[in-house]
Amino acid sequence: MVKKSFLIFLIFIVTLSTLTYIFLFEKSSDKPIVLGSSLPLSGINKELGSEIMEGANAYLSHINAKGGVKGRHIHLVSYDDKYEPQNTLKNTQTLIYKNNAFALLNFVGTPTTKKVLSLINEENIPFISPYTGASFLRNPSFTNVVNFRSSYKEEIETIVNYLNKYKKVTKFAIFYQNDDYGEEGYIATIEALNRRNLKLLSEGTYKRNTLSIRHALHEIKQTKPEAVIIIGSYKPSAQFIKKARECCFKDMIFAPISFVNGNSLMKELNGAGKNILFSQTVPSYDNKNLLVTKEYHRLLNFYYPKREATYGSFESFLVAKIVVKALLNVPGDLTQRKFLYSIKNLPKDVLDDIPIVYKNNQLLNKVYLSNYKHGKFVPVKEIE
C-alpha cells in the first residue's frame, strides 16, 4: 500500500515537473522580441522622428500580423528624447535595464548616439541603423554596431564632386549645427574641398534645437559663395534658406545632406525647391520600378493612411525589413551574437532591387542626389 502511494506520488511529481517545464519553455519561446528606439517625437525635429518610427512600425506590424518571427511577435518600444543627448541616455538605460531590449534600433542623431556609445559597447547590445552618418560609428572595433546608411563623408564628397565637376562651383560656404553632428559635416566638407585644392570661403553655425540663424547668415553672405553645404535639421535649415533668398542669394545653390530631412524641409519652404540639391542615402521612394517601394507604399497606406511617403519612413521601413530577415536567418536559439552575425551576412538581394554589401561597418554604400520638381524629388541623372 505504501509502495503504491509512493508510486502515485512519484508519477504526480514527474508529471507536474514535465508540465512546468513545457509551460516555462513555451512561455519563454513565445515572449516578444523587444527592440528599442530613442528618437525625437516632440520638439524641433519631431517630424523626422515620427517618420522613422512609422516606417519601421509599418513593416513590423505586417510581420506580426503574419505571426511574427518563428512564432514570436516583435515589440518596438520607442521613447521620445527631443533630440537631446541626456534624454537619449536615460531612454537607453530604460530600454536596456527595464524593457530588456534585445537590440536597439533607429536612434536619431549624432550627438545623441555619441552620448550612449560607451553604454551600448559596455553592454555589447546590438545597435542597429542609427540615423546618422557619423564617422565614429564606422569604427570596425565596434562589433555590435551595424550602420545601414552611407556616411556623412560619402554624402558630402558626392555633393562637392557634383557641384564642382558638373556645375563648375568653386566658391563654397557651410551652414551647420554647432555640435558633434555639425562638426562631422564641417570636417568632411573641408576634406572634400582640399582634395580639389579648394578652400572654404565662410562658415555659419546655429545652436541645436533653436532657430537662431541670423549670425550664420551674416557671416556667410559677406563672402558671396556660389553654394552652401547645409548640415542641420529641417526647421533652422529652412529658416536659413528663406532668409538667404530674401536678402541676397537668388541664384545660390543650397545643398542639404540627408539628415536635414528633405520632405519636411520642402513643407517648411512651401515646395519652393529651386536651386536646392538634395543628398539621400536611399533611392527615391517614388521609384515604382523597385519592388520594395511598392511594398512600402502598400503597407504605409494600410497602417498609416493619413501619412505621406517620405525618405525617413522609407529608410526605416527598409531597416525593419533587414532586421526581420536577419532574425529569421538565425539558426536555433536566438542570441544577440547570432543575430549580429546574421545581419552582417545577409544575401545581397534581401531588399530586392536595392543591393546591400556589408563594408565600412554599413550595409548601404551609395549616395543619391536629387532636385525637387513639381512636388517630387527627381534624381539628378534625369535632369542633366
Account of the 3D structure:
This protein is 46% helix and 15% strand. The chain is of the alpha/beta class and 384 residues long. The chain has 2 domains: 30-150 and 285-365, Rossmann fold, CATH 3.40.50; 152-280, Rossmann fold. A 5-stranded parallel sheet has the order 2-1-3-4-5, sandwiched between helices. Strands 7-6-8-9 form a 4-stranded parallel sheet, with helices on both faces. The longest helix has 29 residues, at 2-30. It is globular, with a radius of gyration of 24 Å.
Helix content, binned percent: 40-55%
Q: Class of the largest domain in CATH?
A: Alpha Beta
List the strand order in the largest sheet: 2-1-3-4-5
Q: Largest sheet, described in full?
A: 5 strands, parallel
Kindly report the name of the CATH homologous superfamily of the largest domain. Answer: Response regulator
Number of domains in the coordinates?
2
Q: Please give the alpha-carbon distance between the first and last residues.
A: 96 Å
CATH topology of the largest domain, which one?
A: Rossmann fold
How many β strands by DSSP? 12
**What's the CATH architecture of the largest domain?**
3-Layer(aba) Sandwich
Number of helices: 12
Instruction: Specify the structural class.
Output: alpha/beta
Rg (CA only): 24 Å
**Overall mean confidence score, pLDDT:** 92
